[in-house]
Amino acid sequence: MRRLFLVAVLAAVPLFAASQEAPRPTRVVVQVSEADPARWNLVLNNVKNLQDDLGADKVTIEIVAYGPGIGMLKFDAPTNSRVSDAIKSGVAVQACENTMRNQKLVRADMHPGVSYVPAGVVQIIRRQQEGWAYLRP
Amino acid sequence: MRRLFLVAVLAAVPLFAASQEAPRPTRVVVQVSEADPARWNLVLNNVKNLQDDLGADKVTIEIVAYGPGIGMLKFDAPTNSRVSDAIKSGVAVQACENTMRNQKLVRADMHPGVSYVPAGVVQIIRRQQEGWAYLRP
Amino acid sequence: MRRLFLVAVLAAVPLFAASQEAPRPTRVVVQVSEADPARWNLVLNNVKNLQDDLGADKVTIEIVAYGPGIGMLKFDAPTNSRVSDAIKSGVAVQACENTMRNQKLVRADMHPGVSYVPAGVVQIIRRQQEGWAYLRP
What we know:
The structure is a homotrimer of 137-residue chains.
Chain A: H1 2-19, E1 26-32, H2 37-54, E2 59-65, H3 80-88, E3 92-96, H4 97-102, E4 115-117, H5 120-129, E5 133-135
Parallel strand pairs in A: 1-2, 1-5, 2-3, 3-4
């Protein structure tokens, strides 16, 4: 009988736990895959609006630049100071190493604050599988 | 013993409830973030195809225009009559107030049938978190 | 008492089953809706990177071409041999029949390896509802 009670309680626990969880934080992965500085500025505007509206501490944002979008993260990109601001505000800005290899870019060519992922596209898919929202400005 | 039975049944209820739920309605948030009338027409074609194929009463659609895409919702846009048709058919067509402020647009500049959201990008993310599909034509 | 035990165990089974399931396979629906061969090559690069990084047998990929993107799947598209390679590697490459009708295209105009969906945009939405990740390169 004690064992039976234990089984029943064990079965119930995950359900109660789920219903008492805190609201899931807002998490957004933002794709940059175009070579257009106007689009890069739009991305950075979007990120700022998300932070302003939701609170910078209540939203987790990753920018992933790959393919023709990698230019946004080069050290001499016209959006360079805005990328610095985004990083300072807590945004993870990630460059695709597959793209860098194809375009013969090395880390010295890039904005010093970025981080690196082996494949931008894999990162974007993985984040969606983990429940992140996807934004392709 | 009666209490034990109750615990076991309570544990089981949510599982049965989940399996008997009605199929979730199809809900789609459609992004417009480009200044290109050909793209606006593509968006409106996409919305119409969703309605034709799924049944206009079985799909809930929101169009969110922001950034360079806001032009689609100005009263003098070339897609104006098609936007009216979409609204008449039940689509919520939403303009981003952040973008309007940046571009010095007021409500008198806009298609009279649109509704307004404080930040288009926040709306798009929130809808995804609520389980809506995302379409970026 | 035996019946009670059964109820408790039945209640518990789905929970244990869920926690012991194999990790859900990665499934990705990739949208092509632009008339730009450079974008078509980016799509095909993205698909290849997903296969290389995740293992071609561990990721299920569908490419859906519609609207101005349908050109990628015409038999004389510049990306033709790469589309063949993608199909050989297990990618489902799908042309939108709505678009084909609008553009007066018939199956004889298309790459012989593609498959067909009645409405590309419905396919993209349905896949997201089934838990697939969405990629719009």
